[in-house]
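User: Quick sanity check before I run a bigger batch. Here is a single chain. Can you write out its predicted 3D structure?
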Amino acid sequence: MSNQTGEIRVYVGTYTGGASKGIYLCRMDPNTGALSEPEAVAELVNPSFLAIGPAGRWLFAAGERRESAACAFAIDPATGALEPLNDRPSRGGSLCHLAVHRGGRMLIGANYGSGNVTVWPIGPDGRLGEAGQVIQHEGSGAHPKRQAGPHAHSVTFSPDARFAYAADLGIDKVMIYRVDAVGARLEPNDPPFAQVAPGSGPRHMAFHPGRKWAYLINEMGNTITAFGWDGESGGLAEFQTVGTLPEGFAGDSTTADIQVSPCGRFLYGSNRGHDSIAVFAIDPATGRLTSHGHQPTAGRTPRNFALSPAGRFLLAANQDSDNLVSFALDPDAGTLTPTGSEAAVPKPVCVKFVTA
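Assistant: Done. Predicted structure follows.
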C-alpha cells in the first residue's frame, strides 16, 4: 500500500464533568496511525457528539445537558483551530447526536432525554439559525424503566440524502423521514418507521457504501440488525440480526457505535462492558454478516470509534479509561492490530476525522 502525505486531524468530543475542558484535537500519521499529543481547542460543556460540515469547513457539537444546544465552529484550514460561530437551543433534553446534510444547509439532532428530533438551518457562513422544526416521538417499549417513553438516540441521512433515519431506543423503532433540503425540514414518510425486536434499544445506524443495506446497532439487546434499503420508498426490510458479544460471555455490556469500512467488506461495533470492537465480514452478494471475532480496545467503555478516511486505521475512544487508542485495519481480513500509539484524553466519547 502506497504512503500518504499530509496530516489527518482528529477531533475528540468529551464529557466535561472531570478534567476535560471540551473539544480536543490531535494529529494522526496517515501511514503509521501514530497520534500526536492532544490539545484543547474549544471549551464547551459536554460536547458528547461532533459532526463535520461539507469540505471540512465547519464543526458542529452537541452540548449535551438538560437544556441542550447545538454549537457551530469554523475550522481553520491551516491549523485546525476552532473559531466559535454561534449556538442554538435544541428545544429538547440531552442532545446526543448530530448529522449534517451533504448540501450543508441543514443540521439534525437527536434529543435522548425528551425523545425528539430537532432541525436547524445552516447559513452560508456555517452559523445555525433557530430550530425550525422539532418532531416529537411517541410510544414506549418493553423495558419498564429504560423504555418508559421515547429516547431518540441518533439521526442518519441516507446515502442519497433524500431520507433521514432516527433510531429511538425507547420505542424500538427507526423513524423514517423525507428530507426537504431546500426548506431545511423533515417530512413524514411512508413507511413511517421500521420496527425491531422488543427490548432491543436502537442506538446508531450505518449504511453500506453499495447503497443496498443499512445496519442498526441495538444498545440493550447487544445485537446488530441488518436491513435491505429501498432507495425509492426509504423503507427498511430486516433480513438478519446477530449478536455482538462472544458466546458464553455473562458480564454486563451494552453496545454503542457502528461503522462500515469504506470498501464495504467489513462492519465494526463497540461493546461497553466487554470493552471490545466486534468485527464482522459483509457478504458482498447478500449483505449478511459473519463474525470475525473481537478486538479488545485497550481501555474501558468504548462509547465511540471511527475509521480513518482511507479505512486503514480505527481509533477507539475509551470513555472510562481516558484514552484514545489506534489500531491498524487489515484490508483483506478486516482484523484490527494495535499500532502501539494512544493519546490521553479525559472522558473521550466521540471521534471525527478531517483531512488537512
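The two ends are 21 Å apart (CA to CA).

User: Great, the batch can go ahead then.
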